[in-house]
Protein 1
Amino acid sequence: MAQRHSVLARGYGGRADPPDPADVLAMPVVLHIPKADPPSRSRLLEAAASAAVALCLDERVGPGGEWEECFLAWTGARIRKVARRARGAQWVAAQDVPGVTVEVGEAQARAFVPGRVGDLDPRIKRLQIGGTDLEHDEPGPPPPDRPVLWIDPTLKMTVGKAAAQVGHASMLLAGSMTVGQCAHWSNSDFACSVRDADENQWRRAQALVDEGRAVAVRDAGFTEVAPGSMTVIAMWRPEL
């Protein structure tokens, strides 16, 4: 755990994007959104956040692991995630592509080993990036015994964009923890809460970022939001 955690703790490289867009490195994330009975938005985002950090701390990304080379190349560049949706046979087929699936209640998400956009497995590449969104729900106050990821709802991100952002947030949060805290979190399969913040909660969360008691995702602005937008604030306990 210590060696894998150290990769997240030291932060990510700012290597410039390659000239060929096909050479850009990204972590694909697939959200299971059945047509007939889709999961709640908050549960699905929780599954996406947990899946992303679970892959980053999986033994297979560690020294000598089969995913190590791909993972280190990705963390040495700009951290990108691309979320897609799947249902039925598409979701079943995605389970055969190397990655980690997390279930939170009725919600399921799978994070895949990062790699070149141009080499994306056809079973993932054929899935839609947009087209399906989920209504915002009200799951209630977050439990006191797990990390919470607060989203700025004024940005009006799609569920796919939000999934990528909470995935970034869970990685940043893990990197800000001690190895012991991270190991403890892993015992719950990286369970977390995702909530839309109201105006007061967001202001207080920003203050905790300034105090070094929370971590924030600032988006590069490639899609949906302006560059530098603070999209998600993550903290070890729901202190708001």
Protein 2
Amino acid sequence: MKTFDGYLFEHDKTVQLHHTGPAGECTITALCRFAQESAGRHAERLGFGITTLGRQGIAWVLREQAMQVLRFPALGETLRIQTWPTHAERLLCHRDYRILDGEERVVALGTSAWFGLDLESRRPRKAESFFSLPWDLLPAPAFGEPLPELEAPAETAPSESRIVRISDIDALGHMNNLRYVDWIADHLELFGIGGRCVRFVRIRHAREVMAGDGVAIRHEVDGQGGVRVAMSGEEHGREVCLARVVPGAPV
């Protein structure tokens, strides 16, 4: 079935110095940022952006994100970011990404799930109440198969404590979702696992944390080349997020 051009959004980004890590290559956090910037621009074009939804008292909040890096782009490379919605279910609206290099080779694939937060009640809104598209006209998902379920590391796994700072906070008053990626990379590097070169990350957010909150981060190597990571609030002990990362140079 034909896909209408308006449902696939593209724009270009050039890798700048502040997008790179110690190796001079674009970090996975920067690639996630490129993807989310494109999502925001496309949502505005479709009539579901933060400006339009803000007038309805709704804000987009990220529930889950995943990014697979096939090759880390170098400083100065120009990338083409592609994004499109894929489907909606109850509370969640799903959106995927593809990042191409100058020769149109795929360097990264991503997927995400968002919900509309009612700013008055601070509760999610049903997707159908504010978001609808002709789903049969949209491209197929970026990943051919569903990603495996996330698993928590053991309670006794190695851990560290961190405090949420003002620099971690976004416009909604909670920790920005990209800071979770940075925190995970910092944590893995602390334990000598190579967090500065993460080629796959998947994070599912469970609850917000605010400036001043203490967060416990723990990890466990899963025996399949990946690492299970969990964050929990130190005051209440409840889950903040679950994640799985795969460190090391891309294959």
Protein 3
Amino acid sequence: MYQCKYRLARLFFMAILTLACAFAGAETTVYKYRSKSGVTSFSDIEPIGLDYQQIRFDCYACQIDSLVNWRNTKLYLSEYSKAIHQASSQHQIDPALVRAIIHAESHFNAKAISKQGAQGLMQLMPETAAWLGVKNPLVAKQNIQGGVKHLARLVKKYRGNISLASAAYNAGETTIKKYGGIPPYPETQVYVERVEILLKRYQQEYEKSGYTSS
């Protein structure tokens, strides 16, 4: 009886937490961990002294009612610089776009895992990661290398159209083909808009530093 009540309480907690995050438009990160008694538990507070897994319920920029002001939210200009610049140079793609995608996908959280199973900084699905040769998507360097390779291919496929490339990155190439462009999904539409805002801001910061990003 106790275990049954515990499970119900835990499920109730998860439901309330998910709804609260959704309506608040906040970054919905939940921590999954095994307690000292061996029970799998969930919390919106990072566990201390325990191994845990971060679970995101959606990509960072896909929340329709997000309260983030994308035109002045903090940018991440130094994180993973070496890996981003190496991958961008190798695949001949704007590193500012890479930063914009990482920001939109995971908010630079290398351990992010979505409810669909997308993993890491650039939120690679397991099958996509395997196809790209990424052995561990939660290793930042591997994730960036694979994600940039995939992104560069999309930019080339859509002849430099960043809106279509980012829409395909979010919703898949089949969806773009089906609708002949950006699909009528509110989540994808706000994602594309926010990626473009972030891209311009990252490009401006690169220009200020004297780095030619394109």
Protein 4
Amino acid sequence: MSRSEHIGEQTVQARVGVRIADWGSARTSPVIAPAAADFLSERSFIVLGAAANDGSMWATMLVGRPGFVEATGERTLVIDRLPEAPDPFAGLFEDERDVGMVAIDLETRRRIRVNGSAVREGSGLTVRTEQVYGNCPKYIQVREATEVASGRRQARHGSVLTDAHRAQIRKADTFFIATRADGVGADVSHRGGNPGFVTVADGQRLSWPDYSGNFMYMTLGNLELDPRCGLLFVDWESGGALHISGRAAVDWDPARAAAIPGAQRMIDFDVERVVDIDAAVGLRWTFSDYSRFNPA
């Protein structure tokens, strides 16, 4: 299977009635256009997604001053950072592997996604791109970032969500989801909504609505082939990172979706592993405005 013949995406698109020919992965380009290169070089953070050696999926955030992500060729990105312990990705890229990436300007709501493969070279990562494409500004909350000195990064590992984790998730207006499927690679996507759009059903199951998007269904297409995925909830005020790995399933019952404003369908996620890191990133964000696309 190639990225241009993503059976998972095609299955989902057929199910929901998308009639655009060769939509999704088939329409993306591996080339980093000059505008995309400029945008990436201006970013102060990116979110990465990849599978660990045991197959579990994770997402993490890398932070640096503008210029820490640089296009050095039309299909090559160099990231002047490596995930360090206690990050779930510490040491992961000693071997080349599929990687998904999203770069967002939270002030302008612009974003670019990059999928390909990554490996450590020296003190950074080199990414060979397979897909580079822009996304619409829907569901992105406006925030302004401030750089701070790095604090002590203390991690807590577990297999269940604590009361504090559940409280953080219930008030979240944004998270990131990493998925992957054999033969088509990894992907990272942004999810946003008003606080409370992610619910904690029974303590260890999260649910959220899938809102109307760009009809590419890259995330749902990967989940169609492999339910393993990783979630990242960032505490924008403290710089903390809540990494959760587990399995997700799409609920296609229209009656359930109809009960949630704006929902096209519902996603259920079962928690398997949790890594909670204090002061994980050296940025803090000030909230400005919710997206006008967020359903009430």
